[in-house]
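Justification of resources, computational component.

The compute hours requested in this renewal are based largely on the per-chain cost of generating structure records like the one below. Each record pairs the submitted sequence with a full structure-token output. That output is archived, and it is also reused by downstream analysis tasks.
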Amino acid sequence: MTGTTPALRLEGIVKTFPGVRALDGVSFSVLPGEVHALMGENGAGKSTLMKVLGGIYQPDEGKIIVSEQPVVMTSPLQAKSKGIVFIHQELSLAEELTVAENIYLGELPRKSFGRVDWQKLHEQTNRILEMLKVGFDARTRVGDLSIANQQMVEIARALTVEAKAVIFDEPTASLTDAEKVVLFDVIDNLKAEGVGIIYISHRMEEIFRITDRISVLRDGQYRGTLNTAETSEDEITQLMIGRKLDLSRNAVHHELGDVALEVRGLSCGSLFRDISFEVRKGEVVGFYGLVGAGRTEIAETLFGLREPSSGAIFLNGEETAIHSPADAIAKGISLVPEDRKTQGLVLGMNCRDNMTLPQVDDLKAGPFVAEGAEIAIFDQYRDRLDIRTPGWKQLAGNLSGGNQQKIVIGKWLSMHPSVLIVDEPTRGIDVGSKSEIHNLIRDLASQGYAVIVISSEMPEVLHVSDRIVAMYSGEIIRTFTSEEVTEDNLIQAISGIRPDKAA
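The structure output for this chain reads:
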């Protein structure tokens, strides 16, 4: 850390919405040249605090102080002019424009008579891009870039002003491991220049790798700041959720029932080949592998989103054909998709209607939907899943990521499926909600559901699964029981090393 006078300070910030005190007297500071993590469960107040800082919301009480000068932020543009810059998780780029036009949108350099100075624009942009070590230039169309490279354009935007504090909100969510290294180099460069970094992430390994201090919010209140080098994951977790987490390996404590789902020799073009497995009632089968291994594609085929090219699917011992999601739902298969925002929810619709959407036809009383029945379903699963919302009228888009995921899970549970497929159940979700969803998955299995969990997180798949299917490049390499699996043999399997080749 290079300075002791804060680059940015928040004092006693209060923000209230109807029915919710989102921030309750929060104080927070970031020093020049430090990376300061802001952590908390979904719904703890992190996003609201950042929106106050970015001029999107006005605080009801409290002060924002930049370089020891009190300021009022009335818009994101004003925040940027004060040196407060945001790198958002959700990309907000104009895909038809070039990289340079996106980076300097609204601030294009001009020549006489208001003409754009294209040469200066491209030179300025390329200087920033060189610092970021990216493989594209100022003239590249943003729509032609990968998601990861679009994220780099967002970061480049931040570097156009003399930043006092840069806020990164889950910046690695769409980056590969190699791209993460570049991002961390960029953060190191900003540190060296005396810029304060606020780093919001649920990924503990990143937090402990790159941050100097960690501040924790819980239920809209500031709970403390710790030096990263002097704390542990357990201590941070306890501060976040107010309790210890049980992340031990799962052990089965209930009897498994009959085979609910059996797949024999299932193939789908070049996506996956000759897939065979079974899931029993009361069992959680985890699918683990690298991105592109074919795990999600198998789930989509079972849910009727893809037509298999060969093979057979058996439900409760009977061969069946599934041609559409409606088919799958009718036969008792439900899918919680990986991307909850675009595939699992209608963000502009309220919580109740999202939860009851697949069964609207069954809830009709004459030509109308029976509102009482809808509310009863919502109330049941809100309580069961601990969905934190002021009421059913709240729009799904206004909920935190963890609560959104619970709405999606509740939606399918309310259909009482016999087979539940959950793709990346805790993506973008905090540790407390993760633990709740893990316990929920185990609880569902104990109630007799057959559950398939697809996950890219090894601790998750080890924790919730009775058996683990390891996939590589569209094939099943090995299936492990919870007793025989180790981190080493699981890594070998997803790297394509079969048991007979392993040393």
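The domain at 250-332+417-503 is CATH 3.40.50.300 (Rossmann fold). The longest strand covers residues 20-30.
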